[in-house]
């Protein structure tokens, strides 16, 4: 992603303390936006759906593994592993933010 000059200026100002008096409002705005995007992404999934863990997941050994959604909340899904991955064995349940899940 390439940032515009305006975006770079804003990030530089935040980094250099120009907006320190507004940090709580900035954090609240970012958290609100993240919640909105997570809810929007959650609408694309359903319980029982087989999905894949994407490349943004940590630990890295979970990336690309298939999981089945067994429970959903507004912020995350509980998934069951289809195959053993790292320290997790087939059938283990893990809570994941929607941002690391992708439809197959």
Describe the structure.
By secondary structure, this protein is of the alpha+beta class. It has two domains: 5-41; 44-103, SH3 type barrels (Roll), CATH 2.30.30.30. The protein has two helices and five strands, in the order ααβββββ. It has helices at 5-15, 23-42, and strands at 50-53, 66-72, 76-81, 93-97, 101-103. A five-stranded antiparallel beta sheet has the order 4-3-2-1-5, with no helix packed on it. It starts with a helix and ends with a strand.
Blueprint of the fold:
Layout: H1 5-15, H2 23-42, E1 50-53, E2 66-72, E3 76-81, E4 93-97, E5 101-103
Tell me the β content. 15-25%
Q: So what's the oligomer here?
A: single chain
The helix-strand sequence is HHEEEEE
* Helicity level: 25-40%
- Average pLDDT confidence is 93
CATH fold name of the largest domain: SH3 type barrels
* Domains, number: 2
Largest sheet: 5 strands, antiparallel
CATH architecture of the largest domain: Roll
Tell me the overall shape: elongated
**Spans of 5+ residues with little confidence (pLDDT < 50)?**
none
E-strand count: 5
Structural class given helices, strands, pairing? alpha+beta
* Widest sheet, order of strands: 4-3-2-1-5
Count of helical stretches: 2
